Amino acid sequence: MSTFALPEAPTLAARIKLATTPAEQAAARALRRQVFCLEQGLFDGDDTDAIDGTAITLVAVDADHAVIGTVRIHHAGDGVWWGSRLAVARVARRQAAVGSGLIRLAVGAARSFGCTTFLAHVQQQNVAMFRQLHWQELADVVLHGRAHSLMRAGLAAYAPIHDGETGFICTRGGA
C-alpha cells in the first residue's frame, strides 16, 4: 500500500480503492444520483447506463467507511480505457485529495490491466484540475446539455497500481 500527502491541513483522510462490497457499490451509485441527478440535473432520477454493466467502480471512503467519492472505469478495447462519472460528495469537494486520488487510481488501475490510452469526457469546470494532473484536451463536446472536453491522460505520469483492492490513503498535511 502506498501513501502520499498533500499540503494544507484540514482533517480529511480518505482511502481510495476499488469498491469491493455491495454496500460500497450501492453507496457509490447513491452518490452519483446525488451529484448528477439532484445537484446538477444532468439525468432525470438515475444516471445508470449500459457502461455500468461492465465498469469497475472505484471509491473514496472516509474514516467512518462512508463513500465520499466515486468514479468508474471501463475497457473499450485495444488498450483503450475510459473513466466516467467522477463524483465527490459536497463535504469533500474542497479536499483536492479525493478527486485527484480517484483519478490517480483510475488511470493506475487501468494501466495495470494493459491500458495504452485513457480517456474521459470532463465537465468544463474540472478541466483545469485534469490539466494539472497531466491530462491533455483533445476536443470540446456537449454531453447531456453541458460543455465537456474530451481529455487523454498522460500515462507517463501514472504508475500502474496492481493493488487496487487495498488502494492507498490520501491525506492533507501528512502521511
Summarize the structure.
This protein is an alpha+beta fold.
How far do the termini sit from each other?
A: 12 Å
What's the CATH topology label? Answer: Aminopeptidase
Placed side by side, the strands forming the largest sheet appear as 1-9-2-3-4-5-6-8-7
- Overall mean pLDDT: 91
CATH-wise, what's the superfamily? Gcn5-related N-acetyltransferase (GNAT)
Would you identify the regions where 5 or more consecutive residues have pLDDT less than 50?
A: 4-10
CATH top level is Alpha Beta
Helical content band: 10-25%
Number of helices: 3
The Rg value, from CA coordinates, equals: 15 Å
Q: Number of DSSP strands?
A: 9
From the spread of the alpha carbons, the general shape counts as: globular
CATH architecture: 3-Layer(aba) Sandwich
* Major sheet: 9 strands, mixed
> Strand pairing plus helix content: what structural class?
alpha+beta
What is the element string, with H for helices and E for strands? EEHEEEHEHEEE
How much strand content do the residues show? Answer: 35-45%
The total tally of domains equals 1
